[in-house]
C-alpha cells in the first residue's frame, strides 16, 4: 500500500510540474496555479509517506 501512495505522490508531482510549465509557456496563469497546487499536493503526500516510514518499526 505504501508503494501505491508513493507512486501516486510522484505522479501528482510530475503532472503538476507539467501543468505549471505549460501554463507558464502559454501565459495561462490559471493552469500554472493549478499545476503548482497539484505539485504541492504531491509533495505533501510524499512527505507523509516519508514520515510514516520513519515511524514504522523495523
User: What percent of residues are in strands?
Assistant: under 5%
Low-confidence stretches: none
Question: What's the number of helices?
Answer: 2
**Largest sheet properties:** none
Mean pLDDT: 92
Please provide the count of β strands.
0
Q: What Rg is obtained from the alpha carbons, in whole angstroms?
A: 14 Å
Structural category is mainly alpha
Terminal Cα separation, in Å?
A: 17 Å
Percent helix, as a range, is over 70%
Principal-axes geometry comes out as elongated
Written as H for each helix and E for each strand, in order along the chain, the element string is: HH
Care to describe what's here?
The mean pLDDT is 92. This protein has 58 residues and is mostly helical. The longest helix has 27 residues, at 29-55. It contains two helices and no strands. Helices cover 90% and strands 0% of the residues.
Structural key phrases:
58 residues; mainly alpha; 0% strand
Describe the structure concisely for a colleague:
This protein has 58 residues and is mainly alpha-helical.
